[in-house]
Amino acid sequence: MDQLSLTFHALADPTRRAILMRLAESDATVNELAEPFDLRLPTISKHLKVLQEASLVSQTREAQRRLCHLEAKALKEVADWVWNYRTHWEESFDRLDAFLSDIAAAGKASKN
Question: Between 1.20.1260.10, 1.10.10.10, 3.40.50.970, 3.40.50.300, what CATH number should domain 3-83 receive?
Answer without folding.
Answer: 1.10.10.10
